[in-house]
Hints:
The complex is a heterodimer.
Chain A: E1 3-4, E2 7-8, H1 9-25, H2 35-45, E3 54-56, E4 66-68, H3 69-75, E5 78-79, E6 93-100, H4 104-115, E7 123-126, E8 143-144, H5 153-163, H6 170-190, E9 215-216, H7 222-237, E10 241-242, E11 247-253, E12 258-265, E13 270-281, H8 305-312, E14 317-318, E15 323-330, H9 344-347, E16 352-353, H10 367-380, E17 385-386, E18 392-396, H11 400-405, H12 409-413, H13 415-422, E19 433-442, E20 445-447, E21 459-461, E22 466-467, H14 478-498, E23 506-507, H15 509-520, E24 528-529, H16 539-542
Parallel strand pairs in A: 5-24, 6-7, 6-13, 7-10, 13-21, 20-22
Antiparallel strand pairs in A: 1-2, 3-4, 8-9, 11-12, 11-23, 12-13, 14-20, 15-19, 16-18, 17-18, 18-19
Helix pairs in contact in A: 2-10, 4-7, 4-14, 5-6, 6-14
Chain B: E1 9-14, E2 17-22, H1 27-33, E3 53-58, E4 65-68, E5 78-82, H2 104-108, H3 120-124, H4 131-140, H5 143-150, H6 158-162, H7 169-184, H8 189-199, H9 204-212, H10 215-224
Parallel strand pairs in B: 1-5
Antiparallel strand pairs in B: 1-2, 3-4, 3-5
Helix pairs in contact in B: 4-5, 4-7, 5-7
One iron/sulfur cluster binds near residues 115, 118 and 120 of chain B.
Amino acid sequence: MEIIRGYPDYMRESIEKVEKTRPQRLKATFKAMTLEEREQILNEYHPDYKPEAKRDLKIGPSKGQRLPHEVADLLEAHPLIDPDDVDLSKVDHDCDILIIGGGGAGTVAALWAHYAGIPVDRMLITTKLRHGDSNSMMAQGGIQAADRPEDSPPRHYLDAIGGGHFTNKPELVRALTMDAPRIIKWHEELGVMYDKDDKGVMMELSGGGTSRKRMHSARDYTGMEIMRTVRDEARNIGVPVLEFSPAVELLKDDQGRIAGAVLFNMETDQYYVVRAKAVILATGGFGRLHIQGFATTNHYGATADGLVMAYHVGANLIDLDSVQYHPTGAAYPEQIVGLLVTEKVRGLGAQPVNKDGELFVYPLEPRDVESANFIRECYGRDNGLTTPTGMKGVWLDSPMIDDLKGEGTIRKNLAAMVRMFERFGIDMTQDPILVFPTLHYQNGGVEITDKAETSVPGLFAGGEVEGGVHGKNRLMGNSLLDYNVFGRRAGINAAEYVKKVALGKLSLDHVRKYEEALQNAGVETDRRAPMLLPDYRGSHVLSRALDIL
Amino acid sequence: MTDTIKTRMIKVYIMGKEYDVPEGLTIMKAMEYAGYRFIRGAGCRAGFCGACGTIFRKKDEYKFKTALACQTPAEDGMYLTELPFVPANKAEYELEELASGPNIIVSLYPEIARCVSCNTCTKACPQDLQVMDYIQASLRGDIEQAAELSFDCLQCGLCAARCPADIVHYHVGQLARRLYGKFILPKSLHLKERNDEIEAGVFDQEMENLTTMDLDQLKKSYIERDIEK
Lengths: 549, 229
Ligand SMILES: Cc1cc2nc3c(=O)[nH]c(=O)nc-3n(C[C@H](O)[C@H](O)[C@H](O)COP(=O)(O)OP(=O)(O)OC[C@H]3O[C@@H](n4cnc5c(N)ncnc54)[C@H](O)[C@@H]3O)c2cc1C
Ligand code: SF4
Ligand code: SF4
Ligand code: FES
């Protein structure tokens, strides 16, 4: 197979067709779908609408809720630790607030808890990888906030709740959209380098499902720029961070309030007992569960641990039946399959086209609708292109961005994307790139109030681990916002909450009860959870592995 | 996933030990194929976090190279190891108290004055940044240039591991960007005005109406909203 500038010859033939239709497509638009059309294509082609991919949860407060099998498997699994193995009489860390997860939400929560009066030596962030290794670091596209005169928070509200198919919790959408400008202002004060013109006017773009341009970006490293800035601030004020030590179970006291967590040092296999008056759950999402076998955009630690731990203590879950697939995951080359091609590529004008170079969908439908259209084009109409490793995809006609917005726009605004493809021999300023939907975001999660409280006293949650904010579908740019808004609210409200708490005796009885509930429900399995890390070792190795050291 | 690729096998040497892996995997996936399960050394797996800094030499080549394991194809004859941690001291500062003058960076990171202009950091950078140039810009007090040139830095630490002058480039770049973002980039006026409006309660009534609106009315408002082109 001959490879020419990154693509095998048969893919090159299809690229020629794309080039041929480009001049006339530069002026072309495609009609957006009506609500009825959306509903129909979602039902027929969206992976989330397949009834056989889900089941009813057998135990716990959200019993009966329909969940993807991969999530239900973790909730219907034995707890990772046996309470009898853990000595709760010796406390390793004692603090007011324990924050689980050192991504965006956790770091923001620490800063705002500190602003609200909690000294840094009375808090602890514990995290699974390094501080900042998280989905937050990976966001490219941007963050929404209605701060232009032609825009308003109520408009943002309408876009978010319509995008979520009117299933979002109103109080949460209100908090999200009303706090947004304050968050961007805070970032500006911390020194986040948002894209602005020379007068300080934010350069804002449209995103899927937004009715105004309100996507703020910092080139295409928006997530990295925000994450590293808040992390730098946390380091400056001295927030203690424990790395490679995931929480494996929450603790309660004898009055049923949250009272800390058991952590596990993955490098020494030792556990730590942390006593805390409040816990903020900021463990992010579940992309690494590879729901329905999909590749994912998510970081290595996105394994739904927070959902499992919260469910063990009896927290309500919400909207977890709905999973977000990002329409544009890389489908070629093999090394980067599933990695994100930011929505900004479409925001800047690139159109999705099929193997014959035809535009087949409005480029900026809400994500679920856009994804369903891609899947129909590949599997319903057979108009996709098959890669040498058997993956199907449609073209995203990136070179047209420079035609529309001027030479050099792609390199300037999409440096991370250009670099990613260049590393594998593809020049996206000259050639289109092949894409297919990829598992991207956990729409639902642990149910919270607008004060970021869960249904369990003392347990707060912010960011991708919680649910209700986005209903059944999140719009681009609303989750960076989410982790900031609810990370902040969690920090502030936890700081307020701990003032009144005097903890009783630590206990893991809820874990014993969970085990009983599993038995009563007749769940027979050797699965254990939380998962902590996925296992990608080669099957030839796993089939001959011994656990003897 | 990696097991389905049927291609030529190549030999890689992970910390000197030989393994056969299929051609066409990244270094990270090749190590996993060989049986490694990462605790350290894998973060985003997509070229954004800098957790997977890697050093390698090819058999029969004298050059010592650096890469991101998640963004670099494994090649036949690579002797490699990940370098997932680089000891580095970060200056602690209160940004509010640093007005942006020319000497701030060098006063917090005096070691940048020891740069011998060997350009090793630039050669080590897997993001192809002009690392030496941003250090030199920092030394000159050109905060804007230091911020611009360091913007795409993933903080992988490979430059700092190689620098003969013991400079921690990525912390220097981080400081430059925060100074630039805070003190030099113009403040957004419309952002301030919107915050003032929210503060003054301008949107409260409209928001109240929306949160209490019945579903049909809400749907209607959604469908009828005008879309900015
Ligand atoms: C590639 C990509 C691009 C994206 N682009 C955008 C975008 O343009 N705009 C937008 O708004 N959103 C975007 N998103 C979504 C957004 O980045 C995330 O939803 C958001 O950052 C989540 O923040 P978080 O703090 O809740 O979770 P994370 O940032 O993922 O942080 C969770 C942290 O908790 C740690 N952790 C997990 N389990 C445990 C445990 N048991 N104990 C301790 N620690 C644990 C994790 O390792 C991680 O560090 C994108 C996401 C991805 C993956
Ligand atoms: S490696 Fe160190 S000494 Fe050499 S150019 Fe870079 S900063 Fe200067
Ligand atoms: S400048 Fe240094 S830390 Fe930053 S990406 Fe380049 S080598 Fe890594
Ligand atoms: S794992 Fe994050 S850059 Fe490689």
